Amino acid sequence: MASIDRVERQVKRQYDTSRRRAAAQATRQAILDAARRLFIERGYAATTMAELAERAGVAVDTVYTVAGRKPALFLQLVESAISGTDDAVPAAERDYVREMRAEPDAARKLRRYARAVREMHARLAPLLLVARAGPPEVAEVWQSIARRRAGNMRLLAADLAATGQLRDGLDLEEVADVMWATNSPEFYCLLVEDRSWPPERFERWLADGWCRLLLA
C-alpha cells in the first residue's frame, strides 16, 4: 500500500509540474502576442507596459517577471520570427540549416535557403517597420541580429566553398557579404512590401540570383 501511495504522489507531482509549466508558457505566449500586436498597431514607443499587460490579461509585474523590459520583449519577438517557433533556436539546430548542410549540391543548398528566407521574412517584415520607427534601444536589437546573421553567412560561404562549385575568383568574405545583403529583411521589404512582388516570386528570383552570382 505504501508503494502505491508513493507512486500516486509521484504521478501527482509530475502532473502539477506539467500543469504549472504549461500555464507559464501560456502566460508568456499571451504577453508576446500582445506585444507584437501593440508594437505593430501603435508603435514601440507608444506602447506602455500597462497597456501590454492589460491586453495580455496579466499584471504589469508579471510581464516584467516573465518577459522582461520592452527591449527584451522585442528581441524575443524577433527571435521567434526567425525560428518560426515560440522560442529562439540556434542556427545550427534549425531544420532548414540541417537540410542544407546535408545537401551536397550548392544550387540546391541555395534554393532551400531562399525558401527559408522567404518564410522567415514574411514573419519579420512587420517587426522591421517597428524597428525603423523605434528608439535607439530597438535599433541596437536589430543591429545585433544583423551582426549575428553576418557571422552565419561566413559559415554558409564555407559550406558552399566545400562543394567545389563556387565561381573562380570569389573569396569567402565576398560570398558572405553578398548573401548577407540580399537575405536581409530590408531587401525583402523593398521588393515584396514596396514593389508588391509575390513572396514566391521573391524566393525564385533570390535563388536564381545567388546561383548566377556565386556558382560556376
TrEMBL record:
The entry's DNA-binding region: 48-67
Keyword line: DNA-binding, Transcription, Transcription regulation
Domain HTH tetR-type: 25-85
Xref: Pfam families: TetR_N (PF00440)
GO MF terms held by the record: DNA-binding transcription factor activity; transcription cis-regulatory region binding
Presence of keyword Transport: no
PROSITE patterns (alphabetical): HTH_TETR_2
Source species, domain of life: Bacteria
Gene3D superfamilies: Homeodomain-like (1.10.10.60), Tetracycline Repressor, domain 2 (1.10.357.10)
Signal peptide per UniProt: none
Keyword Transcription regulation attributed: yes
TM regions (residue ranges): none
Name recorded for this polypeptide: TetR family transcriptional regulator
Organism: Streptomyces fructofermentans
